[in-house]
Amino acid sequence: MEKLSGLSHLFMTIFLHTFATFMVIPGITDVTMAALCPGKDECSLAIYLTGFQQA
């Protein structure tokens, strides 16, 4: 267990990176929607491009 405590800073870095990634994904979709389809509630092209960006 002492060996893992030395790696705690790496685990925290991985956790923060993953958490930040999940926080940014909805923002990317909103920006893409606003750019491609202003004033619309749904836009299949924006959803497709957002999925392509994340792949």
How far is the first residue's CA from the last residue's CA? 36 Å
**Quaternary state of the chains:** single chain
Helix % is: over 70%
Order of helices and strands: HHH
Q: Beta-sheet strand percentage?
A: under 5%
Number of strands: 0
**What kind of sheet is the major sheet?**
none
Secondary-structure-derived class: mainly alpha
Mean pLDDT: 79
Low confidence ranges:
none
Shape: rod-shaped
| Rg estimate, integer Å | 17 Å
How many DSSP H or I helices? 3
Organism: Corchorus capsularis
Transmembrane segments: 6-25
Protein name: Putative tetracycline transporter
Keywords: Membrane, Transmembrane, Transmembrane helix
Please provide a written account of the structure.
It is a single chain. This protein has 55 residues and is mainly alpha-helical. It has a domain at 25-55. The protein is 80% helix and 0% strand. The protein has helices at 2-5, 8-36, 44-54. Helix 2 (8-36) packs antiparallel against helix 3 (44-54). It comes from Corchorus capsularis.
Which characteristics define this entry?
55 residues, mainly alpha, 80% helix
SSE arrangement:
Elements: H1 2-5, H2 8-36, H3 44-54
Concise synopsis of the structure shown:
This protein has three helices and no strands.
